[in-house]
Amino acid sequence: MNINQAAAHAGLPAKTIRYYEEIGLIRPGRAANGYRSFAEADLHKLAFLGRARSLGFSIEDCRALLALYEDRARASGDVKRLAERHLTQIAAKIAELREMQATLGHLVDACAGDARPDCPILARLSDHASREEVRRP
Amino acid sequence: MNINQAAAHAGLPAKTIRYYEEIGLIRPGRAANGYRSFAEADLHKLAFLGRARSLGFSIEDCRALLALYEDRARASGDVKRLAERHLTQIAAKIAELREMQATLGHLVDACAGDARPDCPILARLSDHASREEVRRP
DNA sequence: ATAAGGGTTCCAGTCACGGGAAGGTCAACC
DNA sequence: GGTTGACCTTCCCGTGACTGGAACCCTTAT
């Protein structure tokens, strides 16, 4: 099977597959004409990689996951640790984004968004101490 | 004021400040010896950029925000539109991460994490149709 | 004179690809 | 047999927003 069929099968761009070969994640065979030749096992690995990437695992995590997958004597604890570490990173990223969302959301709510120049968003960016709340007497 | 003092003042690495100059976000003066010389206005801009970046705005968004900030005839609507577009992206990213978190969280919960090789995480990666739930009779 | 602690430029690397050029290969059609 | 046109190959550059490091200049203190 040639690269474009493999790509369609795995749901990955051909460019990505070439890249995965370049960095040693897969090793498809070669036909006499130099074309890459993808066997069942290669397709399986590509699908595995696509799913791991879609869960946000880094390429290096994917490499480790693939190695664990192929190691029949693996301990599920190793896989779980890797996944938990990734979950921690996901949670941290979500927390960071939610904070941005909250801050920026308040500022956007306070901004009139009309033709006048006064803007609490710019005010906050230019002076961190500035607040969008109304003054209290 | 030299670059390291400016960096300390703005809470940004000196490298980042040089980069911001390189891409035209700031234009500090130069002393006779070739050292960058940061004036009040430069420090203010750097702080502005630092806060905008910490809210997740891209460099190009920061450039636009800075231009709006310096345009006394700006319309707050322009700022608000930019911020709302960014908020949309933040929300999309959060949604994506939460889906990863949910999926991976279920898999981690279902994984024994011991010395045995059986692992629902790898099972799911190797076969998307696999489910971590217990079989129902 | 020298050593330290600034500053400067430029080059390379990061991550995970994507775009595009230049050229080889294959199947089909006239 | 020639010619499309689709597919394949390698190679190199660009992305975003920096970060690290080399090689070298400037200032101040000993």
Biggest beta sheet attributes of chain A: 2 strands, antiparallel
The side-by-side strand order for the widest beta sheet of chain A comes to: 1-2
Radius of gyration of chain A: 24 Å
Q: Main interface pair?
A: A-B, 53 and 53 residues
CATH class of the domain at 1-56 in chain A: Mainly Alpha
Helix content of chain A: 55-70%
| Estimated structural class of chain A | mainly alpha
CATH topology description of the domain at 1-56 in chain A: Multidrug-efflux Transporter Regulator, Chain: A, Domain 2
Specify the overall morphology of chain A: elongated
What is the subunit organization of this protein? homodimer
Number of contiguous helices of chain A = 6
- In percent terms, what proportion of residues of chain A is strand? under 5%
Explain how this protein is built.
The structure is a homodimer of 137-residue chains. Chain A has 137 residues and is mostly helical. Chain A has a domain at 1-56: Multidrug-efflux Transporter Regulator, Chain: A, Domain 2. Helices cover 63% and strands 3% of the residues of chain A. Chain A contains six helices and two strands, in the order H-H-E-E-H-H-H-H. The first copy, chain A, has helices at 3-10, 14-22, 40-54, 59-70, 76-110, 120-126, and strands spanning 29-30, 36-37. Chain A has a two-stranded antiparallel ribbon with strand order 1-2. Mean pLDDT of chain A is 94; it is low at 132-137. The interface between A and B is large, with 53 and 53 residues.
